[in-house]
Amino acid sequence: MSWYSFIAALEQGLIFGLMSLGVYLTFRVLDFPDLTVDGSLPLGASVSAAIVATGGDPFLSVAAAFVAGGLAGAFTGIISTKLRILNLLAGILTMIALYSINIRIMGSPNISFLNRSTLFDGFRGLGVPGYAIPMIVALVAVLALKMALDLFLHTRFGLALRATGDNPRMVAAQGVDTHTAIIAGVALSNALVAVSGALLAQSQGSADVNMGVGTIVAGLASVIIGEAFMGDRSVFVATASVILGSVLYRMAIAAALSFRFGALSLNPSDLNLITAILVIGALTLPRVRNRLKSRALK
Amino acid sequence: MLRLENITKVFYPGEVNEVVGVSGVSLTVPEGQFLIIIGGNGSGKSTLLNLVSGTALPDTGEIILDGKNVTKLAEHLRAGVIGRVFQDPLVGTSAGLTVEENFSLAASRGEFRGLGRALGTRLRGNIRDRLAVLGLGLENRMKAKVGLLSGGQRQAITLLMAVFKRPSILLLDEHTAALDPRASRKVMELTRSIVRREKLTTLMITHNLAHALDSGDRTIMMNRGSISGDLGSEQLGTMTVQDLMSLFWAAGTTDEGEQTATTVRT
Prior knowledge:
By secondary structure, chain A is mainly alpha-helical. Chain A has helices at 3-29, 37-53, 58-81, 87-106, 133-152, 156-166, 168-173, 178-204, 215-230, 235-257, 271-297; strands spanning 110-112, 206-208, 260-261, 264-265. Chain B is built from 9 helices and 10 strands. In chain B, the strands form 2 sheets. Chain B has a 6-stranded mixed sheet. In chain B, strands 2-1-4-5 form a 4-stranded antiparallel sheet, covered by helices on one side. Helix content of chain B is 33%, strand content 23%.
């Protein structure tokens, strides 16, 4: 792997790390399997791209993406809690609806704004090499949002959210409105995913309605890989592990794609297979570790 | 003070598996009374507790708690004035959260939960003091995940959480049934001392008739959704467990589907 592809993989890992934080919030904290993300990632990208393509401010476009993602997540939460639609299905329904909405937002299935100044252009000329700017901006954004999420999960409302995912029967008896908790949690999660999509669009200079396919798989892979390496002792550790997992996942993919054994090499289309193998490996790692540990103790 | 007026709850009305949970029950529990509820399985004891807590809503009747009509109020909206301990020790606390985080939830029960800090120094000190009274060393394990604790410890914590903010009524649903004899005794002693000290209005379901005699001020017996017996402290004071057992059988208390017992055990 060259230095440039290392930085590129790191940049991808960090940008998708935001998405993984969103997946962590729904899947792990709220125990709500949320498939909306396959739609809210391109939603964030579409909103950001549409605003920048028409001359809008890139920073505002990311803020708008955050709000849009929040609305999408709130919708999933509402139809799940108030209309009693199964949580898995609720996410899928929103995701499907967002396909059409994203095309409406962009005015076409994809949009490009290569002639416009992106979010990252605002940081040029600060003495950092051009190719590393997106990575550093992403790093700062991810760390800031991670810290904000950590703090949030230790507030009274955030704690109620964690308890809702852990023991819904108990929280009702403690006066927590589980519907509000779920709606707010799924909204926040998708807001983070949409920001991830917005940053992605800014780094690519374009947005496409199909760019979200497989987001949930990548997100879960990142969460699982991160847990295998760092565990989830505390909220602070868990959110860090998710970001690390995302970076490792993208690194592994970059390494796999640059792998050559004689005439054999892997194509981007082999990505799904690579992901499946990685996730199985990550899920098996803790068990192998425990087995080796107990053998060593004998 | 709790007042139930003509409460009825029928499950699956009109269907094949229709079951009458509670039928036309009226009950007044004065302030500070420790009321024991006994009865066979399916007699309506848990349904009654669920109706008071809001887990289930009645079909007819009114529930008035400390002067406020809570009949149709959702469970989480009346939780602020209700303390509850469940039969299953794993339900009352959140296994994935720490001891102090669980108490933080109890401390903000009924209050608006905003973006303020869940655990401050003052709250931590408060929790530590209350845990120290248990004598279980839990005050030194406040940052431990509750899932690591035993059933008895979790039940003791659930009880402390239920009374962390003084409730208008304490609901105990066979809360020692799933514990080993030693833990059961410890939790029961804790219950008695807390209820006596705080003079809490308490409803306790139990299958343990000895509890009825040495803990309660009053015992009601339920059968097939109605109250079939109501004994005050004067009557209970002279009775033994055997006497209470006989009354139990004589009242024709049945398990769901069983034939009515007509003989009195001696």
